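Marked as duplicate of an earlier ticket. Keeping the data here for the record.
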Amino acid sequence: MKVSTSQFFKQAVEIISKQHSDVAEQQARLGTGKQLVRPSDDAQKTALIQRLKSGLAVQQNYQSGLDELRTRLISEESVLSSAENLLLRIKELAVRGASESMSVGDRKIMAVEVDALRDELMALGNSRDASGNYIFAGSMVGTIPYQKSQNGDIDYFGDDTQTQIYVSDQRTLEMNSPGDAVFQSIVREGNDGRYSGTLSASNEAGLINLSYAQLDFVTRAAELRAYVGEADAAAMVTVTASQSGLNLSGSLTINGQTIAGGVWASRDALVAKINEQTATTKVVASVDGSGNVILKNSAGNEGGAITLGATGGATSNALGLANGVHNTTQSKLAEQSQAQRNYDEYLVELHSSAYDGEIDWTFFHSVDSEAYNNAYSGFYTPGAPDSKRVNFFGVLGDLVDRLRLSDSPKIEASMEEVEELIQNTALSMAEIGSRMNIIESQEAVMEETRIRFESLISNAEDLDYSTAVTELSAEMLALEAAQSSFAKISQLSLFDYLR
């Protein structure tokens, strides 16, 4: 084998250069604090680090979404809390308005306040977020969700879209709450005080030709009169004895007054004799469509007992009933009295309004009289037809109208409806609270995931300084040894052995 001086030098330079490179690489690691200075240092580990960093970035994006969701839910919760306070005030007014101690004037004042509170609630429904988007408009964030029409109704112009955001690889949460889901409608039983029974052809035709406003007045009056008719029918003594069961030749006393006349040929004749003594007995008699004899206290004497008996000590009377006291229940009499009062107040309200001169009062009373007769005969039950859904602000608008008309039964119904609105609002707040709890639990999971990712990245990427310094010292020692060896070898020559 041939060994030359140039070969020694070449090998020495290569060794020293490699040692310099190793020292420089170790110094670069110490300078950056990273195990890998270049991707080429370890391609497989570099790919692992990139995957871990990508996973960590995804977790950070999820966290940003949760922060945005929390801000949104806090805004919604604040709005609903304010709405609940306003509804509680409205319910307080409804409770007071339903009290019989309130006058028509008092209720009108309450109506003004409820109307103002309704406008405040509409303003809350039109709240915006920091970006200027409407919170409760669904996906139509640039459209005012609640707008008032010319007739005073407040309608919803948003949609029911709920935006979903990912809070983990497999889980989503609702970002927003549409207005219809927060300010929820309710189901109202019955026909909301508008007569829907069958009327005569002429009255039905007349209703069709009325304006919307006057149709509302007439059908409302018809419903009130139907309620009066039903209450009147229940507040009477009904003699259901058959024709043959009546002792038309017998004697009869009503409230101590003898009904004279000897033999009565028919029910009508008997009724006529009874009514001749109304001033004394305070009782009015009639025959209904089924042939029953109806005894009713005369106007101003409602609630009084009707005492029946027979003259000469007989045990039965001409009506075929046992002698004794007959009367209706106090609750039915109270219904009768309240229904009539509501109707009377409604007429006073209409006559004092700007519509007084526009209403055809003859037709008006034709409709409500027919409604009374229908309910009195049992052909119509007030408030009984189909149920319907009424929106949030419609419930409050109806309460305003009912307070203005001093309609006690309907105010009481509105009181219950407002309570339902309050309960729905509380449920919406509970749903927001549930989503807030999910955010907190998800953040705890994400924090653990973040720590795990950062630990894995650190293990794969960060430099162990104590080990690195030791390795650097070893590399520098090797470099110095190589340099020292080269210095000595470079001084050797074959001519030294030829001397």
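See parent ticket for discussion. The first strand starts at residue 146 and ends at 148.
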